[in-house]
Every structure is written in C-alpha cells, then in structure tokens.
Input
Amino acid sequence: MSCEEYRSMISCAVDGELSEEEKRALEAHLSDCEDCRAYREALGALTEELQALPEPPAELKNRVMDSVKAELRRKKLRRLTRYGSLAACLALALGLGLFRFGGRDAKSAAAPMTMMAPAAGMTESASATAENDICEAAEATEEESMMLMANALPDAEAVARSFLYERDGRDYGECSIEYGESVGDYTPVLEDYTPVGQITAVHFETVTVLLDESLSVFGLVE
Amino acid sequence: MTREEEQRLIRAVQRGSAEAFEQLYNENQSRVYALALRMCGNEQDAMDASQEAFLKAYRSLGSFRGDCAFSTWLYRLTANAATDLLRARRTGKLISLEQLREREEGFDPPADTPTPEEEAERGESRRELSEALQELPEDSRKILLLREIGGLSYEELAAELEIEPGTVKSRLNRARAKLCALMGREGNKRDASASKKRKGGQP
Output
C-alpha cells in the first residue's frame, strides 16, 4: 500500500471508522513512516481545532426566541379568529348594554350559548337572529352581573373554548384557551399585542380579566 | 440529551411550548453556531444562518420524521442555510456588512462586533483555520464540518449528500488533506507548493 492509501486510512481512523485489522496495518506502517506519523498528528490537531466551539453571541438566542414567540402568538391568535363572528356578536350585545347574565349561574349562561354553537361560520342574517336570541335572553335576566361566560364549540374537532367576560358591567373582552391549558401565564392583549390588563381570577370555565381601561381584549398571549 | 428527552421536548414544542424550544436551542446552539461560523467565515453571516436554521427547524418540526436525532437534522438545516446564504452572497443578492461599511460613510456597526483588539486576541491559528476553510471548495467544507462539528455518520452524510458511503470516505480524506496543505501542516515535501498557494504565490 502507498502512503496515499495509508493517509486515507488515517482520515477514517480520525472518524473511528477503521476495523481492528485496518488499525493494525496502519500502526505497522506508522511505526516505519515519519511523514505519515506527522500527518496523523496534523489531522488530530485539525480535528481538535475544528471541534472547539466558540461561544454563540447572546443576541442570537434573543433573535431566535423572539421570532419563535412571535410565530407562536400569531398561531394562537389565528385560533381566536375562528370564533371571530361569535365574539363580535357578543361584544356588540355587550356594547349595547342589553346583555346581562348572572355570572355565578353557569347553566343560565350556557343555555343560550348552546344556540350559538354553529356561530363561527354563520351568515349575516343568521348572525342577526342569534344576536336577537342573546338579547332576548339578556333582557330576561335582570340580575346585575359580575361575570359572563360563553361556551361555544363550533365543531367536533375544535379543542378551544371562547370566553367572554366582563366586570362590573364595564370591562369585557374575549379570549380562548385550550382544554387543560393553564391560563396563568397568559396576558390579555389588544390586536397589536399591547397588554391591556391582567387575569385576576380563573374559575372552572371562566376567566376574569381586570382591564386597565374599558378596552376589549383581542386575545391572550403567553 | 437522550432521544426520549428530545422527543418529549419536540412534542411539547408541537403543542405550542416556547420553553421547550428554548431547551432544544440551548442544547444545540454551540454546534449550530460553530458549524455556521466555519461554513460562512464571519460572525454576522453565521448568526443569520444559525437563526434561519433554528426557525426552519421550528416551522417544520411537524414534518420531522424522527428517523435521526433532532440535532443531526438541525445540523443539516444549518449547513444548508449557510450554503444558501453563501450562494446569495455570490450572486449579489445579499450585501455583507463589510461591503456596507465600504459603501456608507459613518456606518454604525452592531455593538457586538469585535474590536480590532479583540480580533487580535483570537489567535493566529484560529484565523488561519478559518481562512483555510474558506479556500476549500464548498462541498468539501460542508462534508468535513458536518462530520467534525455535526458528528454525522458516514451513512448520514451519504444520505444527506446523496452519494455512496465509499465516496463519503474519499471526500472526507480529500477535504482533510487539502485543509492540511492549505495550512502548511503536511510536514513533508508536498507542503512546499501548498504553502506558496496559501501565501498567495502564483503557481
């Protein structure tokens, strides 16, 4: 075998890809050939230098994680828009001040919402009908509310629930979280991600948000 | 990190956990950045290529088949991001910071750009290696770095580069021999011509 061939074996040896037999043959050659011994040392040093890892700049992590979180927010907010028409309808009803539920009575709140279940893809006329239903239900409830809950599942595949909430008839907004997902880490935001308040209480199916001003929440971000 | 831990984190990322992705980032950042830096030859491009690789990994985690380690997949994405970036540079679609500095008077470099003093401290041999790597043909650089930094096996390299395992062996050998020659480290008579070339001498 030529030195050229032994040098190819040295390259394989660096990668740990030599059989025992090849290793023995190589060692026998190296004991006789100074040039190939020097080459093996050179390759060993080269590998060591190549495998030395420089410290990545801290800025890289910020850039990567900021982008990932921004994509995650967009993903979560896309999920919210599935309930857009329902949310708009309910927000309008709230805005008109016609809509009050006894918040502690989940059954009375959930009943009219069941009628809203197909609301996500509804037409304008259907939407108006549904809104009337809500308003009628609202008018039928006299009790001043602390909290309002909507529970809508437009299709069997959906895993998220929409929540609508208000406090003292003044602050309201909508958000959606997944079943089993903790809302403790979430912040209510406007459409441009401006934080607008904080979650002050999380009950069974109800999220209470204390808003900074009387703004409606666009969604929640982690 | 074991494959099980990796799988657990990947599932968490797929469920929307940024923290899980941060753990995957922490685990792989050193090698990804080193690979990108050795491929690109400068820190700014290395940052861009690393960022691109991580984001691509994040976006396509759903299609990650898991037939290799996540890290192996990520190193392949890094090498390809660096290759794309270098290609864009060559075709003039991207302008480097150096070029920008030359074009714009009063160009304000980013705060983390090393000062000349810091550069000097980085050591002659590292610069020598970096320069020699840039003189290697791109294919040779890619296969060598995926092996040395990414730790890809011959089989993984063969699959990635769509070549035979035997060709992997010969290409790695050639890349190493060339790199040694470029750095004047062969230690025998064949060094002479290579050293001249490295110093910019005409053949």
Remarks:
- Confidence is low (pLDDT under 50) at residues 189-203 of chain B.
- The radius of gyration of chain B is 19 Å.
- The longest helix of chain B spans residues 18-40.
- The CA atoms of residues 104 and 128 of chain B lie 29 Å apart.
